[in-house]
Amino acid sequence: MDAVVKPQGCTNFKLRQLMRRVAQHYDAELAKAGLRTTQYSLLSHVARLGPLRPVDLAAAMKMDASTLTRNLRPLVQAGWVTLAPGPDARSRTVTITAAGRDKRSQAQRHWRAAQEALNARLGPQRVIALHALVDDCMELLDPAFHEGADDE
């Protein structure tokens, strides 16, 4: 009879260790452009998706609204994004500015250098496999994925 193989250790701890190491790698490179990875990611999402409501940006980035608000504040203060009134009195719209596009373009070169260095260090096949595994896990952990699962 085959023995049942069980994972050892805490998955959360292991993933957080990996994420800290990867974040340090990207942050060191993006610091050369005066940004943190979270700021670069926000600028990139707003450039690609905007103008859009903060709630829609938070959903696209899979982050909660309060975290988004806190992370947007320095970008607004730097003049890289604007928060303008939205279509109704209660909504706002996030838009990247020309200065924000310039900053993102500058940072993109550093992001690419960080990505290429990580690819070289880990090997392209491992990075591709990691991306696929993360995507699969994200889908399985998505609450919408499990809606109605009990109905089967």
Automatic annotation (TrEMBL):
Q: Which SUPFAM superfamilies match?
A: Winged helix' DNA-binding domain (SSF46785)
InterPro entries (UniProt xref): HTH_MarR-typ, MarR/SlyA-like, WH-like_DNA-bd_sf, WH_DNA-bd_sf
**Biological process GO annotation list?**
response to stress
Gene Ontology molecular function? DNA-binding transcription factor activity
Q: Output the Pfam families linked to this UniProt entry.
A: MarR_2 (PF12802)
SMART domains, sorted: HTH_MARR
Q: Where is the HTH marR-type domain?
A: 12-139
What PANTHER family does the annotation carry?
TRANSCRIPTIONAL REGULATOR, MARR FAMILY (PTHR33164), TRANSCRIPTIONAL REPRESSOR PROTEIN-RELATED (PTHR33164:SF105)
Annotated protein name in UniProt: MarR family transcriptional regulator
Q: Which organism is it from?
A: Ramlibacter rhizophilus
